[in-house]
Specification:
Helix 6 crosses helix 7 (167-187). It is elongated and about 105 Å long. The protein has helices at 67-73, 77-80, 86-97, 107-120, 133-140, 150-156, 167-187, 193-201, 242-249, 256-264, 276-290, 342-355, 375-378, 392-407, 410-425, 429-455, 495-507, 526-537, and strands at 20-28, 38-47, 50-58, 101-104, 131-132, 222-227, 233-239, 267-272, 305-310, 318-321, 333-339, 459-463, 469-473, 476-477, 511-516. 40% of the residues lie in helices and 16% in strands. It is of the alpha+beta class. It folds into four domains: 2-196, Ribonuclease H-like superfamily/Ribonuclease H (Nucleotidyltransferase, domain 5), CATH 3.30.420.10; 205-301, GIY-YIG endonuclease (3-Layer(aba) Sandwich), CATH 3.40.1440.10; 305-447, no CATH class; 448-537, no CATH class. The two termini are 43 Å apart. A five-stranded mixed beta sheet has the order 3-2-1-4-5. Strands 14-13-12-15 form a four-stranded antiparallel beta sheet, covered by helices on one side. Strands 7-6-8 form a three-stranded antiparallel beta sheet.
Length: 538
């Protein structure tokens, strides 16, 4: 049947000279695939510029042919009266097109009509994608032609047959146009069926002159780097097939940032990676190292932030810190994060302060420091060590309770969720939404913290589904026998790298063969945390 042996299902790397194309044209009673009917089908099969066969038949539409269609095509009711119906024509047409790539001018029209009739008579639809000669012409000969009508292109390529609004002559003219377009496409580096499909589907202005930059790239998974004339890295990306992905950029992309990237690109470098995990980690490392101007994540890691509680203080408070080192980081500090930015850190900070009435003022305080209390103290939302209402010992118990709730968070999360629901029940919806955002910020940070706790303290040997060996040393991927272990709390400059590892582990498909350390998270609060995050993310 048609869907079982058509060329488009084969390897996209097949050379164009080995592809069999079936160029088809239809005449119909109107423009609607569901309400109009086919009156004529013409087809030409070609390979490597050689004509292999043709197909032509009138079709009895079993409805009157409109006068304007007769005026356009010359096909009237008398011409189709003795012709076979579409049900009688389809078996022979399906056999003719079998094993070929479907081609048409403005292919969407022809494909829609044929698929509607194939479905109506219990045949499988045409395999996609088809090749549209109008769209291909826009890629390779525009603006050398005033428009991409079939008649204009036939004149441009001086075809032996000119279109005449009859199916077979139009299909023959389209076949000659296709041969001419492929000749132009080859000069631009379009050599395979996959290249052709990319050229047809692409949008925006193509950069065919730079397709050759991808010629020496590997056809394997890994990472690619666009570099400028001065060698500076402009963009880092990841793909399952480096060469194919890089080539796809040059066929046209209407995104403004891609247009700027391609204009600056001078060469492309590929880094093959045997596993998806390695590719994700290498991509994160390269983005952090080079901070490419066209990567959104190029500098985002500099915005990451943490929550810090320094238990050495007489009356500790929660602080937003930019990084865990260089700001007095000691073993007595407790960190939560990193967060995507300071705003997310502040949301989590507000959630914790809402649950535990520790001080929020920024004034430095010793054991005997005293000053006038703020409005929060009068509202009962702060224990007010500033005026001596609580001593350091009792305040320390409060802080220890807060630290304990970060480890076993069921009670903390339950209280915050109850607060959110109470606000919603009172129809204070804006406040409830703010409470939800604060709850989600702290819940997601706690979930990351739990995974990092065992990931960054263990050495793991993994195998993926293809049997590839992956070694992690304290959260750091071992490449070429080298790894730089990641410390706790995770430094912001390595947060994206660790996030890539977490993502692959959570996705599944990896088998742990060896673990030096406890590969487990705490049970306390784990179920509550997982269910809460599932609800919030929905």
């Amino acid at each position: 049947m048609l869907a079982q042996a058509v060329q488009t299902s084969l390897d996209e790397g097949v050379p164009l000279e080995d592809v069999t194309f079936c160029v088809v044209d239809l005449e119909t009673t109107g423009g609607s695939p569901t309400e109009s009917r086919i009156t004529e089908i013409g087809g030409v099969k070609i390979r490597a510029g050689e004509r292999l066969g043709s197909f032509a038949t009138l079709v009895n539409p079993e409805v009157p042919v409109p006068p304007f269609i007769t005026h356009l095509t010359g096909i009237d009711d008398l011409a189709v009266a003795g012709a076979p119906t579409i049900a009688e024509v389809l078996p022979a047409f399906v056999e003719f097109t079998c094993g070929a790539v479907f081609v048409a001018h403005n292919a969407r029209f022809d494909v829609a009509f044929l698929n509607a009739n194939l479905e109506r008579h219990a045949f499988p639809p045409l395999p996609s994608p088809p090749v549209c000669t109008a769209r291909l012409a826009r890629r390779v000969v525009w603006p050398d032609v005033p428009n991409v009508r079939l008649g204009t292109l036939a004149q441009y390529f001086r075809t032996a047959v000119r279109p005449s609004h009859r199916a077979l002559p139009d299909a023959e003219a389209c076949a000659e146009v296709l041969i001419g377009l492929i000749g132009f496409a080859r000069r631009l580096g379009i050599e395979t069926l996959g290249d052709l499909h990319l050229a047809v589907r692409a949008r925006g202005r193509p950069h065919f002159g730079k397709i050759r930059l991808a010629d020496d790239l590997p056809r394997s998974p890994g990472v690619y780097l666009f570099r400028g004339r001065d060698g500076r890295v402009l963009y880092v990306g990841k793909s399952k097939d480096i060469r194919t992905r890089v080539r796809s950029y040059f066929y046209g992309d209407e995104r403004r940032q891609i247009e700027g990237l391609l204009a600056e690109a001078h060469w492309v470098e590929g880094v093959a990676c045997p596993t998806e995990l390695e590719a994700l980690v290498v991509e994160a490392r390269l983005i952090r190292a080079h901070e490419p101007k066209h990567n959104r994540r190029g500098r985002t890691w500099r915005r990451y932030a943490y929550l810090r509680i320094d238990t050495r203080e007489a009356f500790p408070r929660i602080k937003v810190a930019r990084q865990p080192s260089g700001d007095g980081h000691t073993s007595t500090d407790r960190y939560l994060g990193p967060f995507a930015n300071a705003q997310q850190a502040r949301l989590a900070k507000e959630a914790l302060e809402e649950a535990v009435p520790i001080r929020r003022c920024t004034t430095r305080m010793g054991a005997t420091t005293r000053f006038a209390p703020c409005a929060l103290a009068e509202m009962g939302r702060c224990t007010a060590p500033c005026d001596g209402r609580i001593d350091p010992e009792r305040y320390g118990e409060l802080v220890r309770g807060l630290l304990s709730s970060l480890t076993t968070p069921a009670g903390l999360l339950g209280a915050l969720e109850e607060r959110m629901r109470a606000l919603a029940a009172d129809e204070r919806f804006e406040e409830a939404a703010a409470a939800r955002d604060r709850l989600r910020a702290v819940a997601e940070a706690l979930a990351r913290d739990r995974t990092n706790a065992w990931l960054l303290s263990s050495d793991l040997l993994l195998r993926d589904a293809d049997g590839n060996r992956i070694e992690l040393r304290h959260g750091s991927l071992v490449r070429d026998g080298v790894a730089v272990p990641v410390e706790l709390p995770c430094p912001r400059e390595r947060a994206d790298e660790v996030a890539a590892v977490r993502t692959c582990l959570a996705r599944g498909g990896l088998t742990i063969e060896r673990a030096d350390g406890d590969v487990a998270e705490r049970i306390d609060g784990g179920v509550v945390l997982a269910r809460l995050l599932a609800r919030l993310r929905r």
